[in-house]
């Protein structure tokens, strides 16, 4: 059977523990960690916190779902239209790349709408595509939707190119 990525809902603040338990069971999983730059009184300190609170992604077949549900601190799979939601490989790869290149990533729940599409043409997030949210101080805020949220980071305006309308139509169809 084909393996797909699924989102698993965990008990609050148990994402890292669930990820460790799944790894121990030899289940491929991913718990994206956001590097937050906090400041102490005398120094800046980076803290790693789960990017998606109460979520861990697993790469499994449907036959393996029962074993995942029986893992300590796993509540259930995230469902969409009555079935466990399948997360596209490209979305997982985008999340992995995005959090490795950016700190202090912000999430915002949203209904993903088609608007002006852009592609980042240079810089650390080269080749990412997303919707323009705002342009200020010579930076463009770009969102990369996944699971109905936006991952947001500031990107230099000079590193962004506008995609034409025919590009949007091709990607809406596929």
Which characteristics define this entry?
SH3 type barrels; 43% strand; globular; five-stranded antiparallel beta sheet; alpha+beta; Alpha-Beta Plaits
Q: Which range best describes the helical content: under 10%, 10-25%, 25-40%, 40-55%, 55-70% or over 70%? A: 10-25%
How does the helix and strand content classify structurally? alpha+beta
Largest sheet: 6 strands, antiparallel
Overall, the morphology is: globular
What gyration radius follows from the Cα positions, in whole Å?
18 Å
Strand content: 35-45%
Question: Secondary-structure map with pairings?
Answer:
Elements: E1 4-10, H1 15-24, E2 29-30, E3 33-39, E4 44-50, E5 55-60, H2 65-69, E6 74-77, E7 79-80, E8 83-84, E9 86-87, H3 89-101, E10 106-109, E11 117-120, E12 129-136, E13 139-146, E14 149-156, E15 160-162, H4 165-173
Antiparallel strand pairs: 1-5, 1-6, 1-9, 2-5, 3-4, 7-8, 10-14, 11-12, 11-15, 12-13, 13-14
């Amino acid at each position: 059977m084909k393996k797909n990525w699924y989102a698993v809902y965990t008990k609050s603040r148990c994402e890292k523990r669930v990820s460790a338990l799944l790894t121990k069971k030899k289940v491929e999983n991913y718990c994206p960690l956001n590097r937050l730059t906090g400041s102490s009184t005398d120094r800046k300190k980076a803290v790693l916190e789960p990017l998606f609170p109460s979520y861990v992604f697993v790469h499994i077949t449907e036959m393996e779902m029962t074993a995942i549900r029986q893992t300590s601190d796993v509540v259930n799979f995230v469902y969409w239209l009555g079935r466990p939601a399948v997360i596209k490989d490209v979305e997982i790869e985008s999340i992995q790349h995005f959090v490795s290149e950016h700190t202090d990533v912000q999430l915002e729940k949203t209904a993903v709408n088609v608007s002006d599409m852009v592609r980042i043409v240079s810089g650390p997030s080269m080749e990412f595509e997303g919707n323009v949210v705002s342009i200020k101080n010579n930076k463009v805020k770009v969102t990369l939707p996944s699971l109905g949220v936006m991952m947001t980071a500031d990107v230099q305006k000079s590193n962004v190119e506008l995609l034409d309308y025919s590009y949007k139509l091709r990607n809406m169809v596929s």
